[in-house]
Amino acid sequence: MLRLPTLFSPKPLIFRLLAAAEVRFAHRRAAKPAPPIPPPTPPRPPQKPVPFTVHGVTWHDPFSWMSNLSDNVAMRHMDVYIEQEEKYTEAVLATTGADRLQRKLQIEMAPRMASDLCTPPVRWGPWLYYRRMEEGKQYPVLCRRLARLHEEFISYSEPSAGFDYTTGKRIEQKLLDYNQEAERFGGYSHEELSEVSPDHHFLAYTMYDKDKDCFTLSVRDLTTGSLCDKPRADRVANLSWAMNGKALLYTVTDNEKRPYRIFCSILGSGKDDILILEEPDKDAYVNIRNTKDFQFVTVNTFSTTYSKVYLINAADPFSGMTLVWESEPHVHCAIEHHRGYIYLLTNAARGGVAVDSHYLLRRIAEASGSNNWESILLEDPGATIEDVDFCDTHMVLILKEGKTFRLCSIPLPLPVDFKEPVHLAALRPSYLALPKHVCQISPGPNYDYYSSTMRFIISSPVMPDAVVDYNLSDGKWCIVQQQNMLHERTRTLYGTASVANNINKSSFSQSFGTIHEVNDLDNMWNELSEFYACEYYDVSSNDGVLVPLTVVYSRKHKQEGNPGLLHGHGAYGELLDKRWRSELKSLLDRGWIIAYADVRGGGGGGKKWHHDGRRTKKQNSINDFVSCAEFLVNQGIVKENSLAAWGYSAGGLLVASAINTRPDLFRAAVLKNLVRNNS
C-alpha cells in the first residue's frame, strides 16, 4: 500500500525571543552600556468576558472569542491583533538591536534549510516512485520510472552524485501534478492519503477541499492519466485496495469527523459503491489498512470500552469480516500476514494483567475465534519492542535497551510449532548497523514486500536524519539520503555506495545474536559528535521519579555561563522529538545548550510512563519539566537567568504551565500551536 513520502521541508525556528535575550545579555556584560531605549507598548486585544462553569467552578474567559473560527467579525479582529503583535515584535527587536542578529541568523540558516528537490526513489516491483519539485512551481509532482532503466542515469561525480534528473526525465512518467490539483481545489493543494494499487494501474488519493472542509477521494488511471468516474467521495479517512487493484475500500466520517462507514467500489463498474460496515456506536472509530502482502484488509474498531480487529479477505471483500482480536480500549493493535500466519504487535493486557510494553503474538490465519494466539518471545526485562516491520524473507524488530536503540533482523518463516515462547537468540537474529546516540528509528515506506531490502530513517540529536537501505540477506547497508552539514563529508546518494554491517560489540549483542563487522563504521555516517557532544542524565523529580534528560552542546563553545533551551512535549505517549535540527546549529555554535526533557506523559518509558503524565496526573509532567530546568541551572550546565523553554502543540501547554509554576526559572519561551488537550 503506497503512502508516498512528502518532500522534507523543515520549518525554521528563528527564535526571536531568544535572539533578543542573547543581545540583552551581551549588553549587560558591556563595560559602558548605552542608555536603554524605552520599550514599545504591547498591543492589547479586545476583552469580551464569557462565563464557563466546570465541576461547579465558574470563571470568565475574556479571550474566548479568539476560538470562534466561524465568526467572521471575530476573525477580522484576530487578524488585526496578530498584525499588531508582529509589529510589536519587530519594534522590540529593533529596540534591543536584535533585528541585526535576526537577519544574520536568517542568512546563516537559509542554506541549511533548503528542501531536497526530490525524495529518495522508493522501489516497488518494476518501478521507482518519487516526488520532485519543478523550477518555479509551488507544489511537487509525483513520478515514477522503470528501475531497469535507472542505472544509466546515475552520476558518480562528486559532489552531486545521484540520479541525473535533467537527462533522466525522458524515462520518467508523471503520475500526479499537485500544482494542477491546486487549480482543482481553489488554489490550495494538500494531500492526506496516496495509495498506488498493487497492480500499479491506479492511484487513489484524497485532497483537502476548502469549500467542503473535508478530504475528497479521487482515483486516477496511471495508464491514461485521466480521472476515473468513480469512486468519488467526500469525508474520506482511510483507503485499502482489494482484488489486486480492481476494488477500493474506503472509510467515510460522520459530521463529527468520526470514521464510521466502510464502502467498497469496483473500478470500471457502473454500480454504486457497496456499504460493507456501518458502526452505530457513537464512541467507536473505524480504521482500515492492507497487510503488506495485500492478502487481507484489517479493520480496527476502537471505542471507550473495547478494541477489536477484523480481517477481510482482499480477494473477496464481500465475504464478510472475521474477528481475530479483542481487548480492552486504548491499546495498540497492529496486524501483519505472512505465509498463512497473522502476527500481532500489541500492548494489551495479558491474561487480564496490564503490561507496560509491546509483545508479539501469532496464529494461523484461517483459525476461527479471537483467542487462538501463541506468544513468540519470552519477556526480557532489559529490552522492549518498539515497532516491527515485515517482508517476505525477514521480520525486523526495533528494540530499545535502556536508552539504546537496536535494529534486529530475524529470518522468516519462523518454526511452525511453538510449544512455548523462546528467547530472541533462538530465532537467529542479526543486528543491523547504527550510529551512536540514536534517538529514533522509523520504518520507511517498504512497499515491496518481496524485496529483502528494507528502508529505515535513523535519527540522532547529533546527526542529520539518515535514510538507510538495509539488505537483510547479506547485512550490507547504504545511506540513500542525508543532509550534509559539513562540506568535507559529502554523502553519495541513492545507493551508489554501500558497506557491510558493523556495530560495537556489547553485552546485548553477545547475548542475543549475530553482528556483521567491518572497520571504521563511524566514518560512514555523517555524524557530528566530533563537534557536538550528547550527554544523558537522570533527574530526580519532586516525587523521586527519575526523568531522562538529554543535553547537546558544542565542544568548541562549551564554557561556564552558557545560555540554554529546554524542550519538552510529554503527551499522547509519543517519543520526544530529539532529532538533529539544522536551525539549532546557529544556537549551538553560539554556545547555547540544547536540552530535552523526557517527562511523564510522553513515550519511551512504557504505558505506565504515559499514563502517569496524563489527565488527572498531568501535574507530573509539569513537575518533571521544572525539575529538569532546576537541574540544568543548579549543576551549572546553564547559567542562572539564561534558560529558555520550547514546546509545540501539547508541549506548549507543558511549557506554559511550567512557566506559571516557576516564572523565576525561565527568561523566554517559544510556543508553537498551543492547544487545549487532555493528554
TrEMBL record:
It is an enzyme of class 3 (hydrolase). InterPro entries: AB_hydrolase_fold, Pept_S9A_N, Peptidase_S9_cat, Peptidase_S9A, Serine_Peptidase_S9A. Residues 49-481 form the Peptidase S9A N-terminal domain. Residues 33-49 have a biased composition (Pro residues). Its EC number is 3.4.21.-. Keywords: Hydrolase, Protease, Serine protease. GO terms for biological process: proteolysis. Coiled coil: none annotated. Belongs to the peptidase S9A family. Serine peptidase whose precise substrate specificity remains unclear. Does not cleave peptides after a arginine or lysine residue. Regulates trans-Golgi network morphology and sorting by regulating the membrane binding of the AP-1 complex. May play a role in the regulation of synaptic vesicle exocytosis. This is Prolyl endopeptidase. It comes from Elaeis guineensis var. tenera (Oil palm).
